[in-house]
Amino acid sequence: MQTYWTTRHRRWLAEMRRFRYPHQLLAFEELKRAIDQIEARIATLDNAIEEAVPRWHFAPVVDALRALRGVNTLIAATVVAEIGDITRFENPRQLMAWLGLVPSEHSSGSTTRRGRLTKSGNALARTMLVEAGWSYRHMPKEGQPYLKRSAHLPQEIRDIGWKAQTRLCKRFRHLSNAGKPQPRVLAAIARELVGFIWDISPKTPLST
Fold it and tell me: I need a surface site. Which of 74, 101, 164, 201 has the fewest CB within 10 A?
């Protein structure tokens, strides 16, 4: 998701004062101001979501899904809002298809070839899951921020989160090393991530 500039990067930008023409400096400063304003709006909306989620019927599910690496409050809330009651799907494959994360199939006689993703499902939830998939390019690790947000969750759910890490980090490296295009790698990770979401959601009682 949104990655804010670090203090070092902002310092480096502030030192960029050598432009050939004055209007280039003006354009540069206007662009920096625009980015600052966008980041402020994003922060405001993120805070609004953080404040709204605890009062939501699906709040426990959103909280539990944060046990998955790369799934912050925004991603979890968006996915849950788009899916709704996950039990309406009979199996993870149905949910993957609804999200448009299954490959299209082309049959000719006895031969079946798989093509690109159908992308026929929910585009917003799919985008969020693909975005979450980026975090699995790193080695499995339970860093302090992750431990802090998941410490109160049942051990069973935390175990699913760790299983997802070890599985998907390995899968990401394997597909990348095999030369698969990055969009296909991310789609594959997002698809498998849905399986772990399926494992977690039914284990989480809803608030009344």
Answer: 74
